[in-house]
Amino acid sequence: MVTSASQSAAREPQRPNESDHAARAVLLAPTFAERAPIHDRDGSFPFENFEYLSKAGLLALTVPSALGGGGAGAAKAAQVLGIVGKADPSTALVLSMHYIQHLVMARSSRWPARLSRKLARETVDGVAMINALRVEPELGSPARGGLPATIARRTETGWRLSGRKIYSTGAPILKWYAVWAKTDEAETRVGLFLVPAGLPGTRIVETWDHLGLRASGSHDVVFEDVVFPLDHEIDVRLPEEWRTPDFTQATVGAIFISAIYDGVARAARDWLIGFLRERVPANLGAPLATLPRAQEVLGGIEARLSVNARLIGSFADGFDDNLPLIATESSIVKMTVTNNAVAVVEDALSLAGNHGLSRTNPLQRHYRDALCGRVHTPQDDTTRISAGRLALGL
C-alpha cells in the first residue's frame, strides 16, 4: 500500500539550494524508485511524485526563464528525464509530455501568447500538467495519416467538443488537454484546441491495464459536447498544411523518449551488476561476476549504453545549438536507443535466468517497461521507410 501523505511528508526530500536541476532529480530518484514497484503492481498513479517534482522546481524546467521557469533546453531536460526514468519511467513519461508542450509553446509562433503565458505561470506555481491528446480508437496515431473523429463545433458561446481519446498519458493529473480535433466548418480544418480538464461532459475511463508503464495513467478521455472558449484554439489548419510535422515536437519527443528508456536499461544494468557480484553458485564457489561469459555480456551492455549516451547527448546539444537537424535523424536516434534498451534488458535476463523473471526482483519490470519504447511514435517501420525514401531521393 502506498504510504500516507503524512508519512511521506515526514521523509520528503528537501529542495536543495543549488541550481543544478540534475542534482535535484538525483535527490528525488530513490523515493520514486521505492514507490515504483508498488504503483506497477497496483496500476495506481504516482500523484505524490509530481508534488515532489513541483517543489523541486522540476515541473517548470522547460518553461522560459523570463516566465519564472528553468529555461532548460532539450539536453538538460533529457538528463532529468533519464534520472527519473531510471527510478520510475511512468513518472518520467508523464513529465516528458509536459516538457514537450512547454518547449513547443516557447518556440512556436502559432501558440497564442496569452495562453502560453498562463500555462507557464500555473506550472511555475504548482502542479498544472498538460499533454496532447491525439490518438483515437479508429484513427490510431495521427502520425500515420487520417483525420480525427473528434469534432470541434464553433458556436456563438464557444467551441463544443465531442470525441474519445485513447492512450492519454497522465490523464489522472492533467489540468490541460491539447486536443487533436477537426472542425465542422464548410472547409474542414484540423489541429489542436486547449481544453481545461474537468469541464462538464468530460470523463476519464480507466482503460489502462498494460504490460509496462503501468503507472502512467494512460486512460481514455471522453468528451461529450464539452464547451470551452473560442480563443482556446491553439493551432488549427487545413489538413494538407500538416504534412510536415512540428519540428520541435518531433525532435524533442524523440530525444525525451530515448532518455527515458535508456534510464530503464541503466536500472536493469545496475541490478544485474549487484546480482553478478552477490550470486555465488555452490558448484562455482565464486561470484558469477568472475565468469568470462558474464563479463562479456556485461561488456556488451556497457557498449550499448555508451552508444545511447552519445546519441542522446549529441543530438540534444545539436537541437539546443540550433544545428540543422532533420526529423528522420531524430527518429533514427529514437529507434536505435529504444532497441538498445530492450537488448540490454534481454542480455541481463540471459544471465539472471529465473531470478530475473521473478516478481521479487525488478528486472522483469524493467523488461516490461523497456518493451514500451518501441510503440511510441514513430514506430520502427515508419522510421526505416522514411530513411529509405530519403536515401532514394523520393
Strand content: 5-15%
Q: Which CATH-level-2 architecture of the largest domain?
A: Up-down Bundle
Helix and strand sequence: HHHHHHEEEEEEEEHHHHHH
Task: Please count the helical segments.
Answer: 12
The Rg value, from CA coordinates, equals: 22 Å
Please estimate the helix content.
Answer: 40-55%
Shape summary: globular
What is the number of strand segments?
8
- Amino- and carboxy-terminal Cα gap: 55 Å
Q: Which ranges are low-confidence, i.e. pLDDT below 50, for 5 or more consecutive residues?
A: 1-18
Annotate the secondary structure layout:
Blueprint: H1 5-10, H2 21-42, H3 47-55, H4 74-87, H5 89-107, H6 113-125, E1 129-133, E2 151-154, E3 159-168, E4 174-183, E5 190-196, E6 202-205, E7 219-228, E8 233-237, H7 247-278, H8 292-320, H9 327-352, H10 354-357, H11 363-371, H12 380-392
Helix pairs in contact: 2-4, 4-5, 4-7, 5-7, 7-8, 7-9, 7-11, 8-9, 9-11, 9-12
Q: How would you sum up this structure, described in words?
A:
It is a single chain. Strand 4 and strand 5 (190-196) form a beta hairpin. The chain folds into 3 domains: 19-127, Acyl-CoA dehydrogenase/oxidase, N-terminal domain (Butyryl-Coa Dehydrogenase, subunit A, domain 1); 133-242, Butyryl-CoA Dehydrogenase, subunit A, domain 2, CATH 2.40.110.10; 247-392, Butyryl-CoA Dehydrogenase, subunit A, domain 3. Strands 1, 2, 3, 4, 5, 6, 7 and 8 form an 8-stranded mixed beta sheet that branches. The model is unreliable at 1-18 (pLDDT under 50). By secondary structure, it is α+β, with helices and mostly antiparallel strands. The relative contact order is 0.11. Helices cover 50% and strands 14% of the residues. It contains 12 helices and 8 strands. The termini are far apart.
